[in-house]
Amino acid sequence: MEKNDRELLPELLPFWGKLKEPEKKQIFDHTILNTYQNGQKIHGGYEDCTGVIAVKSGRLRVYLLSEEGKEVTLFRLLDQDVCLLSASCIMRNISFDIYVDAEGPTELFVVNAAVYDKLAKENPAVGNFMTELISMRFSEAMWVMEQILFMKLDKRLAMFLLEEANLENGDTITLTHEQIAGHLGSAREVISRMLKYFSNEEILSVSRKGIKILDRKRLTEFV
Amino acid sequence: MEKNDRELLPELLPFWGKLKEPEKKQIFDHTILNTYQNGQKIHGGYEDCTGVIAVKSGRLRVYLLSEEGKEVTLFRLLDQDVCLLSASCIMRNISFDIYVDAEGPTELFVVNAAVYDKLAKENPAVGNFMTELISMRFSEAMWVMEQILFMKLDKRLAMFLLEEANLENGDTITLTHEQIAGHLGSAREVISRMLKYFSNEEILSVSRKGIKILDRKRLTEFV
After folding, report:
1. Is the CB of A46 inside 8 Å of chain B's CB atoms?
2. Alpha carbon distance B141, B150 (integer Å)
3. What Cα–Cα distance (Å) separates residue A180 from each residue in A66, A191, A221, A223?
């Protein structure tokens, strides 16, 4: 790692101040900085234990994937976010698979899972961070579940489009209908039908180039 | 607490052997044994911080509840199970509500949340148990989510009926169609239609008294 990165990594790990010098060295010695391209798979399936990831820059999507290829987005990781679910080998009792893809060019610190696990067992500050982070991801996943179970799809789609537009700092969403269906755990036909409704109402324009929000006020009323 | 109960409680808390004597005393001094009747609400909503619960005997249902009254079962607690989500006030970053009801006569140890929190911060064994338990509940909830998202309802209903019959040690399920819909996050009409299909196939008999499994082998084929 370069000097800049050695200065940045401690800022991403809230327990850094409570590490002893040899512990800090262990993390530095067992962390690599990887770069990924848009769409590249970073983690997925039972097989691999990628490690603890901390986002230097970029955007990642964390999602569930069924055997039949159906997807649902659990949460996004943005700059400075940390994720332990990509190190499920060290998370006792975590028995589900998640998949992580880059959405845009991404730089990631990857901390070796075994080294992290050892620190978590020895140093209560690292262990507490683990509990807090897992609780946060649990809450995010339950929020998605409540949305899917309890919220109508028009509301969910409106919220999703507004969020995506915000992530892109504009009014245009360049995802396909298929991709949106994947994010929301729905079917492409259902999404297309609802987009057509929004389009007929002149809330959106839908074209090959993507979806453009025309009337943000009315779209927000669906939320 | 009576002598028997003072002997039982340590068996339910895996970290007991790693507590110091004053810590053990703190738990004994701040734990009560409550009894509940079938259907009684034990925990629910943002308001209350019931405490850490450990099941002496009985059965509990842990579920999500929407503002419109729609339910979905996340998991059951049986004898000797421990649950921290009923002490969400001490779970930093847990931002969702769960509801817990007794299903049948139930005896519960309830450990004071603040006392438990203090121990978890001081004693790594208690903290580690917290991480493991939260990870386990996270996994159970994600399993339910994957079922809902990725699995067909006939399969889910067949699994549910077999599980319920096992819990009752018999072939009869005394839940209403409405209750089954609540467990599976579905609608009563959908469940009734599917039960009628199973009934027409002579896999089940459906009457006012409940649902009886007639052909366990064929029901299992749906799973």
Report:
1. no
2. 14
3. 16, 7, 20, 17
Distance CA B38, CA B58 (A): 9
For residue B29, what are the contacts with CB-CB under 8 A and spacing of at least 6? Answer: none
Pair of tokens at residue B74: 């996340």
Among A70, A131, A149, whose Cβ lies nearest the Cβ of B150?
Answer: A70
The answer, for A2 touching chain B at a CB cutoff of 8 Å, is: no
Arithmetic mean of pLDDT, B27-54:
90
User: Mutual orientation of helices A153-167 and A177-184 as an angle, nearest 10°?
Assistant: 110
State whether the Cα torsion A133-A135-A138-A143 is positive or negative: negative
The complex's ipTM? 0.76
Hey, are the CB atoms on B142 and A64 less than 8 Å from each other? Answer: yes
Min mean pLDDT across A87-91, A96-100, B99-103 is at A87-91
Q: Do the beta carbons of residue B60 and residue B76 sit within 8 Å? A: yes
**Listing from the earlier edge strand, what are the strands of the sheet with B71-77?**
B41-44, B99-102, B60-65, B71-77
Contact A64 B139 (CB under 8 A): no
Confidence category of residue B188, pLDDT binned at 50, 70, 90: confident
